[in-house]
Design a protein that fits this description.
Layout (H helix, E strand, L loop, with lengths): L9 E3 L3 E8 L2 E7 L5 E6 L2 E7 L4 E8 L2 E10 L4 E8 L2 E9 L6 H25 L4
Antiparallel strand pairs: 1-2, 2-3, 3-4, 4-5, 6-7, 7-8, 8-9
Length: about 130
């Protein structure tokens, strides 16, 4: 039985992606950070997954009330949608797919990458100059 809920999925470039849901009375929160690529999962405020992830989607197994759940989450459709799918065995027990407000178009993504790269170069140059990288 698949359930779709209107739990508040939130995304911002600063805070990343948060997707909370309930399973057998336990609150599970999935977080995917925007800048550090950290993937975190909490069960009732206890951090159970804390890993780096560089793929467009990731899968993590967690255990809740003796049930092993496979959480697959990330983005798709050229970063226009975010999704979470929870499986218990072969059965999808929860799924949510939300469009980002405007998505990220190629021009914005290119500008973010170039701006971040130039900012990193400037900070590196200034740090080397200041600390005497002679």
């Amino acid at each position: 039985m698949t359930t779709q809920h209107n739990n508040p999925v939130t995304f911002s470039f600063r805070d990343g992606l948060f997707m909370p849901f309930m399973y057998k009375g336990h609150q599970i929160v999935v977080h995917n950070a925007s800048w550090s690529f950290k993937e975190k999962v909490w069960i009732d405020d206890e951090l159970v997954v804390n890993q780096n992830g560089f793929a467009m989607s990731s899968t993590h197994d967690i255990v809740v009330e003796g049930d092993t759940l496979a959480l697959t989450f990330g983005s798709r459709n050229k970063l226009r949608d975010v999704f979470l799918e929870v499986r218990h065995g072969d059965q999808v027990i929860y799924e949510v797919s939300e469009p980002l407000s405007d998505g990220v178009n190629a021009r914005e993504l290119t500008a973010i990458i170039i701006g971040s790269g130039l900012g990193g170069l400037a900070v590196g140059y200034l740090a080397a100059s200041f600390f005497g990288g002679a």
